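The protein record passed on below.

***
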Amino acid sequence: MMGPAESHYAGGIFLIDFIFDAQYPFKAPTISFVTKIYHPNVKSDTGDICADLISNGWGPTLNVKHCLEVLRSMLITPNPDSPVEETIAGQLRDDPEEFEKNAKKWVEDYASGS
């Protein structure tokens, strides 16, 4: 997934892992970032996303396109009120300029595609 141009992740290329178990499409896939990303809703060490982002409201009519739309929205508008990384969420709330600097540094270090 490309980092959206209107986000702190612009220019980044992010590999994302989708795991579909036997209950799909009745159960949402498990999604994690393979590429490291500085984001309050993504675990820095595992890449796991806040499960509620995908599973809330999930139904069999939803699909991978829906998941990608949720992920894109998450990159454009990180939610510090539903974090899996409290420190990053606090930085986003209290020092958004430093958050932006760190997010862009991680894009450069881990998601630049080089």
Q: What stands out?
A: The chain has a mean pLDDT of 95. The CA atoms of residues 3 and 87 lie 22 Å apart.
